Amino acid sequence: MTENNSFMDPNWVDPDDAPDLSTPEWQEKLMAAPVKRGRPVSDSPKISTTIRLDPDVLAQLRAGGKGWQTRANEILRKGMGL
Fold first, then answer.
1. Is 73 a domain residue?
2. Helix-strand-coil split of the chain, %, nearest 5
3. pTM over the 0.85 mark
4. pLDDT tens for residues 44-77?
5. Which residue has the higher pLDDT, 28 or 2?
6. Are 71 and 61 spatial neighbours (Cβ–Cβ below 8 Å)?
7. Which range marks the domain in which residue 65 is found?
8. 64 touches 71 (CB < 8 A)
9. Do 55 and 63 form a contact (C-beta atoms < 8 A)?
10. Distance CA 60, CA 14 (A)
11. CA dist list (Å): 37 to 34, 41, 43
């Protein structure tokens, strides 16, 4: 396939190419940029726990699709008067 590119100058540089990010100017900018990964930290994070439920209760919760754990949490809150 290189036969098709024989007319191109091997030293040609595409002006649209990305800049050299290893230069001190770019390194300074990259180091100053804040890194934001993942979800934002919650003010009141959930606590992972294990709970045993009857199979029919779990099946009913899961039948509602995604978010069944959130729905279970809401049911427990209402039941406790919170």
1. yes
2. 45, 0, 55
3. no
4. 898 999 999 999 999 999 999 999 999 999 999 9
5. 28
6. yes
7. 53-82
8. yes
9. no
10. 60
11. 10, 10, 17
